[in-house]
Design goal:
heterodimer; A: 247 residues; alpha+beta; 5 strands; B: 5 helices; extended; protease (chain A); hydrolase (chain A); peptidase activity (chain A); Peptidase_M76_ATP23 (chain A)
Chain lengths: 247, 105
Amino acid sequence: MAGAGDARGPGPAAGEPPPQQRGACQVFPERPAQGKPPQEGFLSGFFTNDQKCPLMLLKTLETNPYVKLLLDAMKHSGCAVNKDRHFSCEDCNGNVSGGFDASTSQIVLCQNNISNQAHMSRVVTHELIHAFDHCRAHVNWFTNVRHLACSEVRAANLSGDCSLVNEIFRLHFGLKQHHQTCVRDRAILSILAVRNISKEVAQKAVDEVFESCFNDHEPFGRIPHNKTYARYAHRDFQNRDRYYSNI
Amino acid sequence: MADGGCWRPPRPCEAYRAEWELCRSAGHFLHHYYVHGERPACEQWRRDLASCREWEERRSAEAQRSLCESERARVQAARKHALVWAPRQSPPADWHLPLPQEKDE
């Protein structure tokens, strides 16, 4: 697969872009091809900062409305998520915050780059959207850059990555339709972080799929701008049997 | 659409009220403008709320028809874009399998 070191195995299928605008293809130095368990060190360092990642992850899984909806939707699709099987806190190269490894069906959380609870929630949401796409569709993560682009557009659009507040913190100032600009840009950065392709190729792929994938809001049914929208979306998801049997 | 006595509004009337209130809020105006570059349209939620209440009070057939039509239009609008990928008929076979190194142990 393009972009990953041979000694490291297939590497991430999809990832969060680094805060600075540069990508890194080989982002998970300790993702093993064989032998070394990726969760080694998960419980070690009980009194070190590494313990923050599992604790923040647990809080996100139990309380965040975006994540709770995604977990329900995945369970409904036959991909029930097990925290210990499907998540791994690891140290990563560069500034990438996380990634979804389709070859192992595992979400990697870069504990050295996730700074606080809100960031953890956003990264988990982003990667669960990739996992959800992997669960419900035949996504050719490694061989079709349009498929990767589509999932990255959806993740940037629906995870809160491109909220007005987050963009202001990045010193990207814009209002009218700026959300779409952010989604395009961050999707391209995410693609470049996990694939050894040119920016032009990534941009072309995003352009080709944008119309369709920007408007695919599953499982939310809307763009969740904040937790209120996410709660309403979860309410609608839980109501879906009544909804579809009465229209 | 389910017939006769089995039918009820697709959403509780409270949900239509909540969506209408959210749509009309200043926060939603800002979010919608930020995403779409235009002001949101909230009138349909108000009409749906009215239809829902009318059905609750008088079991109006017109209210039922109006609600079904409105919700079907929402579903159609959400599905109108061609998919980039093929949907699965079943989840990935390896989703629940142990990690490769766990299998070897």
